[in-house]
């Protein structure tokens, strides 16, 4: 039996919206979609507000990053709209779609919203989009290749980690104790401990335990 889902699609190009509708109605099996379409931030905001007041949950929002602004509500991009959506529907899923590959733009949206999916339009065609959507509906997150590479490039510039720093992080993530790290990395324990202090300060902006470090670097896609 198919599951009913309410879906919001927002893009300022009507042909793209029509294409997504075709995918969901014809290629994604196992679901009956009730689709709301909007072509700018104002239309989308009003759909979200109206359904929220009626206590009608929107299960998924597919949002373009670049959208015409709705200045009255201080919505200047898809990231701002996604934040409004998550405030109304905290358990619903957000998928961001973009042609941008600038790490600083992507990082800002991830920090603000932490979407379940972030896809560069050049990475995923209509034929593969349905499979990506199923992955996200299954409870996993999906970041497309261009988005992933942009995040990594930005983080490398931001933190200035070298190969040894990344090796330390990777080994900690695998559960290797600090005292045993010299068995895997050709530097002294003292040097490793100094690097760990630097890594934690840069990633956490403070000291912290290894679990906090790993949780944060996972969110930053550093490992």
TrEMBL record:
GO BP annotations listed: phosphorelay signal transduction system
Keyword Repeat: no
Organism domain of life: Bacteria
Pfam family name, one: Response_reg
Domain Response regulatory as annotated: residue spans: 6-136
Residues modified to 4-aspartylphosphate: 64
Keywords annotated in UniProt: Phosphoprotein
Presence of the UniProt keyword Phosphoprotein in the record: yes
InterPro entries per the UniProt record, alphabetical: CheY-like_superfamily, Sig_transdc_resp-reg_receiver
Protein name from the UniProt record: Two-component system response regulatory protein
Species of the source: Flavobacterium indicum (strain DSM 17447 / CIP 109464 / GPTSA100-9)
């Amino acid at each position: 039996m198919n599951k009913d889902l309410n879906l919001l699609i927002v893009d300022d190009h009507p042909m793209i919206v029509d294409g997504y509708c075709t995918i969901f109605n014809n290629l994604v099996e196992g679901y009956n979609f009730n689709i709301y379409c909007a072509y700018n931030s104002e239309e989308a905001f009003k759909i979200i507000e109206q359904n929220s007041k009626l206590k009608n949950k929107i299960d998924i929002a597919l949002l373009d990053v670049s959208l015409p602004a709705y200045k009255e509500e201080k919505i200047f991009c898809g990231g701002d709209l996604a934040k409004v959506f998550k405030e109304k529907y905290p358990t619903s899923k957000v998928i961001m779609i973009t042609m941008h590959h600038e790490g600083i733009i992507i990082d800002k949206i991830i920090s603000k919203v932490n979407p379940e999916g972030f896809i560069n339009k050049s990475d995923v065609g209509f034929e593969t989009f349905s499979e990506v959507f199923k992955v996200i509906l299954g409870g996993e997150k999906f970041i497309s290749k261009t988005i992933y590479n942009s995040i990594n490039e930005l983080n490398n510039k931001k933190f200035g980690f070298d190969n040894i720093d990344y090796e330390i992080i990777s080994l900690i993530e695998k559960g290797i104790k600090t005292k045993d790290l010299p068995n895997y990395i050709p530097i002294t324990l003292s040097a490793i401990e100094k690097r760990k202090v630097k890594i934690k300060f840069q990633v956490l902006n403070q000291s912290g335990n290894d679990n906090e470090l790993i949780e944060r670097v996972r969110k930053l896609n550093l490992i």
